[in-house]
Amino acid sequence: MVRLVSLIIFSLATILLATKSSLCHGKTTLNLVDHGITFSIFPLRLKSGLGGHYIPEISCSSWRLAVEAHNIIDWKTIPQECEGYVGNYVLGKQYREDSKAVTEEAYKYAQSLNLVGDGKDIWVFDIDETSLSNLPYYAQHGFGVEPFNETSFSEWADHGIAPPLPESRTLYKNLLNLGIKVVFLTGRSESLRDSTLKNLKDAGYNTFEALILRNSTEYNGKTGVTYKSSERKKLEEKGYRIVGNIGDQWSDILGTNTGNRTFKLPDPMYYIS
Ligand SMILES: *[C@@H]1O[C@H](CO)[C@@H](O)[C@H](O)[C@H]1NC(C)=O
Ligand SMILES: *[C@@H]1O[C@H](CO)[C@@H](O)[C@H](O)[C@H]1NC(C)=O
Ligand SMILES: *[C@@H]1O[C@H](CO)[C@@H](O)[C@H](O)[C@H]1NC(C)=O
Ligand SMILES: [Mg+2]
């Protein structure tokens, strides 16, 4: 009976909407009359391309979602027309809010753990676009429109002046307070060890169990997934338990020995396989 009544109400509403929408033919606003009052259901001009117009923000937003969901993979540069969109995103509030949604969830999870408390519980942190932010560099290089230039990026990174990603640093401090140790595992090469150490300390990451950088001899020609899986395996062989793992790249959290839970921070600027 209740279902029948619901069905009738739904049908009436549908007919009403259809009638009113046809009356508003040619407009994007849809009015609904209820108890003699007219409501605009869509008071804003929709940016959904209803009229068949191409709207860059919508396409770039879809592109970013597909990138974050790992549906678009192995891309070399961001679409040219998305430079403004990506720049606005990473310099704006949304990037910070999206990062916070990730790190707060990570902290909730960490609080729920029953830790052994023998000092072997660790959390793996990636560095670039996770612990540290290279936005000052990418802002000068089209936010990912330019193909990645290892030489020029390394020159910049070697200055050791990257600011922290504030949400990650908060997570880092909270994890330390829970008794979880932190290991930094980065795709940066061994040649950047000193500047990276200095940068981490200046950015407020003073306490950590290890800083693992990429040995370019051992991992020559290997993907990030292979390198990071192998280094995490070595950690587990040393008796550590990886309770959590956070990074901005899928290659930080795919592969083997990924840890009990993984957390993916946003990064619409570049892709590392
Ligand atoms: C990469 O950066 C270096 C150092 O800034 C520069 O000399 C070189 O021309 C760049 N390579 C490309 C392909 O742009
Ligand atoms: C890098 O790996 C090579 C080959 O496995 C090894 O001989 C070398 O000692 C390693 N370098 C560092 C800095 O760990
Ligand atoms: C992590 O996963 C392992 C293997 O599934 C499990 O034995 C262990 O209890 C988990 N640790 C935590 C802290 O959840
Ligand atoms: Mg990274």
TrEMBL record:
| InterPro entries, sorted | Acid_phosphat_B-like, Acid_phosphatase_pln, APS1/VSP, HAD-like_sf, HAD_sf
Q: Which UniProt keywords apply?
A: Glycoprotein, Signal, Storage protein
Question: Which superkingdom heads the taxonomic lineage of this protein's source?
Answer: Eukaryota
Q: Matching SUPFAM superfamilies, A to Z?
A: HAD-like
Record keywords: S-adenosyl-L-methionine included?
A: no
Q: Which residues form the signal peptide?
A: 1-18
The family database entries (PANTHER family) matched by this protein are listed as: ACID PHOSPHATASE-LIKE PROTEIN (PTHR31284), VEGETATIVE STORAGE PROTEIN 1-RELATED (PTHR31284:SF19)
What role is this protein assigned? May function as somatic storage protein during early seedling development.
Q: Which family does it belong to?
A: Belongs to the APS1/VSP family.
Q: What is this protein called?
A: Acid phosphatase
